[in-house]
Amino acid sequence: MANTSQTCHNHASAEAPSETIIYPSKVFNLDVEGQGDEVEGSTFDYSKRAQWLRAAVLGANDGLLSTASLMMGVGAVRKDVRTMMLTGVAGLVAGACSMAIGEFVSVYSQYDIELAQMKREGNTDQKEKLPNPYYASFASALAFALGAGVPLLGAAFVHDYKARLGVVVAVVTLALMLFGGFGAFLGKAPMIKSTLRVLIGGWLAMAITFGLTKLVDHVGV
C-alpha cells in the first residue's frame, strides 16, 4: 500500500493542476509554480486596419460625395443627361488622380520619417512593418473611382430630368449608408451614429452644391 500511495503522489506531482487566467488582451496558462505560457491572443488590434481602412473608406466617400455633388450642381442649371455624365466622368478621373497623388505623398512622408527613426535606433531590419505608399495610393484611387461610379451608374439610364436627380440622390443615400455602416463595422465604431454622420454630411454636400450653383446661375455671375 505504501508503494501504491507513493506512486500516486509522484504521478500527481508530475501532472500538477493548472488554471487559465484571462487578461484583457491575452490568455495565459499558469501551472502551480506560477510560470505562465502565452496561449493565444483573445483580442484583435483594430488599429492595424487603420492604414488601409482610412484610405479605402475616405476614398470611397470622397468619390461618392464629390462626384455626386458635381453632378447635382451641374444638374441645377443643365437638364441634359450628357452634360451631367461628362461632369461626373471628369470628376471621377480628376478626383482619383488627386487622391492617389495626395495619399502617395502623405504616406511616403510618414515612411521617410519612420525609416529615419529606425536608422537612428539601429532597427532597419523592421522596414517591412512600415506603411507602403504605393499600396495606399492605389487603394485610395481605386476606392475613389468605385465611389464615384455609383452616381454615374444611377444617372446613366434616366433621361427625365427630375427623375434623374431623384435617382442620384437615392443611390447616393443608399451608398452612404453602406459605406458608413461598413466602416463602422470594420473599425468597431457605433453603427448608427457613424452611419448617420456620413449620411447627413452627404446630404448637406449635395444640397449646398445644388443650391449655390443655382443661385450663381440665377444671379448671372
Automatic annotation (TrEMBL):
InterPro entries: Ccc1_fam. One of its GO terms (cellular component) is vacuolar membrane. The keyword Ligase does not apply. One of its GO terms (molecular function) is iron ion transmembrane transporter activity. Its main location: membrane. It is found in: Vacuole membrane. Belongs to the CCC1 family. This is Vacuolar iron transporter.
